[in-house]
Amino acid sequence: MTELTDRNRATEAGTPRRPGVVLLVLSLAAFMASLDVFIVNVAFDDIGQDFHGVGLAELSWVLNAYTIIYAALLVPAGRIADRYGRKGAFLTGLALFTGASAACALAPGIWWLVAFRVLQAIGAAILTPASLGLVVSTMPVAQRARSVRIWAATGALAAALGPAVGGLLVEASWRWVFLVNLPVGIAALIAGALVITRSVDETPSPMPDLVGAALLAVAIGALTLGLVEGTDWGWSDPRIIAAWVVAAIAFAGFVVSSARHAVPVIDPALLRVRSFAFSNVTALLFAIPFAGALLANILWLQQVWGYSAIKTGFAVSTGPLMVPIFAAVAHRLSARIPVGAIIAAGCVLFGFGGVLIALSVDATPNYATEILPGWLIGGIGVGLALPSILSSATAELPATQAATGSAVVNMSRQIGMALGVSLLVAILGTPIGFTAAHSAFQHAWWALAVVAVGAALAALGMSPPRTSQVG
Question: Is the CB of residue 397 less than 8 Å from the CB of residue 270?
Fold first, then answer.
């Protein structure tokens, strides 16, 4: 009887009876959300051809609309999950994401697809912070850091499988890259309803700053529009100048709204936690080359070397395969080496991998010598950097702010990804002929490497005092 009572109390407090099963379900959702992102990259060419040859600038919104909305809603969704219940938020977001995936598969045109991607982003913005918040708040303290790394590494594993799976699915139709989410989402919904326990912050708090979140979305969207369309419209075009003005005004409005609201999008108290503040800067900077380099390599393989979708998928899956391996290496090294130094090394390796590719590629395709070495080095860098950024960001936060904290760092990461894709599109433009394309891609890889070095410098500030590190 005593054992049963203790078990019931543990369940009411949010501690799962079967933490391994709960972690599996939560990681499965992270896997699905990440899988979707990396599958869509490989489908770019086929989507463009199916929708009457739309250009790269239009196609980039299939990625950017998702990341912008996702970034803007992550923090409010995290705060709502903390207040009203992480389990309910997780299941709601998962259901919306799964349903929107089906709608994407049925999209009749490019802007319909972009609209349904927005719905996907809303679902992902709800489920992601709730998922990681459940990991942090329900796992035993001694297992918390390890569980966060597993959660992050599972998403990274999706990056490894995504291009290959996407390549296989695109052979049938690009629409299957969205339909594949349905069985995974339904399975996670059923399992989550059965095994995840209730987890909520019992202390009442006001509603988050939704106006600030909307202004942030407008600011990021206008900035992205200016970057993406600048080459085609002209950098002095009134529309581009208007985009910069809107971005500046919206961001200023976001700052004012955050200062006046009782529950701002980013709580200043969180930013006073050193590891959390530097994790956000590092996450944003590292995500720029991470997203840009992935798309650059895919576009080079398909549009310059003429690879098919399936061949491209398997070609780019080799680098991400290094991620879970070196995430485990980073975890072991963190007991002896400051986490900031490990992450900085990963950022530098990722940038070096891109530079190596830029110096190697030529008109004659030779994947084994021109792409593979740099891509493997880049994958090692991601394994050392990305899971450690996410786990370090939340390691020093109280469990009551777990979902909110994870939402902020993921927001920073998503903003960086949108900027990375936009920067790549702006640098590439519309080159004609191999010489112009080769030069444009080289400039892109070098620019992304420079940003990776900036991320490494920011990472050095992430290491908290040893006495304050958690598990």
Answer: yes
